[in-house]
Amino acid sequence: MQTTPREETLALWLAQEQDMRARLGKAGSMSLIDVAQLTPQEFFDGIGNGLYPHPPIGELMDFVPIEWTPGRFIFQGTPGPQHYNPLGSVHGGYAATLLDSCMGCSIHTRLNKGQGYTTLDLRISYIRALTNKTGPIRAEGTVVHVGRSTALAEGRIYDADGRLYATGTTTCMILDMNR
């Protein structure tokens, strides 16, 4: 029996998610002082290898980091009925949280050791509704610009068929965490 491209993508995505879930340590957070001592690559690799705690928001919203390289970050999650609003679709805050996370983390991957960031502005455009039938989705953030005091990133949420569900942009303030 031949598999479709969608089935192949879904199988790959689910295997990658299962592998990451097996590697993640406990949920928790680190102090800004501890994070400031690490390069972004050390920080994210440490989370991905279970050395450092992974963010508790990922457990609450059921999403995990999948891939990170300088200037790019991908999270994966599967929206379910626990994410629904009273209108019978996934609450817009679910997509906003995923986009805020992937865009912010994409910026973090481009910072220097000792720098941090915080979101100044977040803009989301919803394309179509997420439901518990959507299946796994990916939130991909990409850096547009990193300056001395601010950074910009864009993001998108898509499914295994490449259908777009939401897009976003963010402006983040760059912080000197050594002060």
TrEMBL record:
Coiled coil regions, renumbered to chain: none
Thioesterase domain sequence ranges: 88-165
Hydrolase is among the record's keywords: yes
Molecular-function annotations in GO: fatty acyl-CoA hydrolase activity
Keyword Hydrolase: yes
UniProtKB keywords: Hydrolase
Similarity comment: family membership: Belongs to the thioesterase PaaI family.
Name of the protein in question: Uncharacterized domain 1-containing protein
